[in-house]
Amino acid sequence: MKYRLLICFYWLPCVVIFAQPRPYGHEQAIHQDSNIFVAWATKSTIARSFQNIADVSLGYTTIGDINSATGKAGQNGVVSLGDGGSVILQFDKPIKNGPGADFAVFENGIRVLGDTTLFMELAFVEVSSDGVNYVRFPAYSFTPVNKQMMNGEGNSPNMVHNLAGRYAATWGTPFDLEVLKGVSGINVNFITHIKIIDVVGSLDDRFATYDVLGNKINDPFPTPFASGGFDLDAVGVIHQQLELFTPQAANQPTIQFPSLIKSDESFTVQHIPAGCKFTIYDMQGKILLQQTINEQMLTIPSGTLSPGFLMAAFQVNGEIWVNKIMVY
User: Fold this and answer.
1) What single string gives the DSSP state of each residue in 301-321?
2) Which end of the chain is less crowded, N or C, counting CB atoms within 10 A of the terminal residue's CB?
3) What's the CATH fold of domain 260-327?
4) C-alpha distances in angstroms, 187 versus 95, 129, 190, 217, 318?
5) Is 72 helix (H, G, I), strand (E, B) or coil?
6) pLDDT the model gives residue 236
7) DSSP single-letter state for residue 178
8) Per-residue model confidence as pLDDT tens digits over 52-63
């Protein structure tokens, strides 16, 4: 991207210059250098897809690797997902629902016509409290669908909502977990995984993807290159749990289990509600033990868990409670 430099010589009164002014249409965007970010993704798992889902002979995208989407935006390059490809991000500490936006997703959008339109490659965003069950942010697209958007064609950021990739490079698209408050299957105060899924912007019924209202999402298509599809730069965290557990809620079932466990001894979980899904996973989100329990007591054999800090999650009737345990 090239910039013209205009130099003018005249006297100006003293003024305050604000760093990184928002471009047109970027009213909600957050710059990568903003001090509201407290953490960045530390681990990623990529499921690439085709450069052109309508012509799979071109093969998969190849740009980027598992490190490209981790760390601060602008530092490690991007990972290109391809048509319908996805990536799952993990974090050192869970993300929680705080005032306003809770995290932001960065892509490398390009300004096409001044500051009014962007070449945007969009993606759905989903969150999870256990790495298994994901809930999608309700995405909206009001881009006209009477004509297919072509590669390099620009669109206004104001035509889409709750889709990653709305803004130009270095500017993150914010997401507010308050939108998902009360949705079963996740705990908005304990988000351990974020999944980014490329939008296949084709208007062809065979490949089209849809927003929450059932509208086709018109996105530049095809993008038949090694860098095709959504190009994830980074995910920045705004609100995170300072402690690696969530306090017991008032309506949490009175499940009894030890928080300190000897690795060479069995332990028992008691007073379990019928149909409870019990999961133990490590601090990186890897599931170590998972089963649905239909009895009031469960005994975990000795040697099942390796020493270290782990998380125990109980899912009952769509609600999830998570507590930290230590095995020694």
Assistant:
1) PTTSS-SEEEEEEEEETTEEE
2) N
3) Immunoglobulin-like (2.60.40)
4) 10, 6, 5, 29, 9
5) coil
6) 98
7) G
8) 999 999 999 999
Residue 5 pLDDT greater than 50, yes or no: no
Compute the Cα dihedral for 83, 215, 104, 102 and give only its sign.
negative
The model's confidence at residue 308, banded by pLDDT at 50, 70 and 90, is confident
CA gyration radius for the chain? 23
CB atoms within 10 A of CB 57: 7
How many angstroms separate the CA atoms of 283 and 241, rounded?
13
- 201: tokens are 């912007």
Of 119, 123, 107, which Cα lies nearest the Cα of 149? 119
Domain ranges of the chain: 30-237, 260-327
Task: Give residues with Cβ within 8 angstroms of 277, minimum separation 6.
Answer: 290, 291, 292, 293, 313, 314, 315, 316
The CA-atom distances, in angstroms, between 210 and each of 39, 50, 143, 199, 205 are: 31, 19, 12, 9, 10
pLDDT per position as a tens digit, 225-266: 999 999 999 999 999 987 544 444 445 555 666 667 777 878
Give the HSE-up count for residue 231: Cα atoms under 13 Å, Cβ half-sphere. 24
- Quickly tell me which residue has 């038949």 as its tokens: 224
CA 101 to chain centre: 13
* Residues in the chain, overall count: 328
Q: Say if CB 106 and CB 143 are below 8 A apart.
A: no
With beta carbons less than 8 A apart as the criterion, state whether 80 and 231 touch: yes
User: Cα(66)–Cα(94) distance, rounded to whole angstroms?
Assistant: 20
Question: How is residue 90 written in tokens?
Answer: 């993990």
* Sequence letter at residue 131: G
The structure tokens listed for 3 are: 């910039």
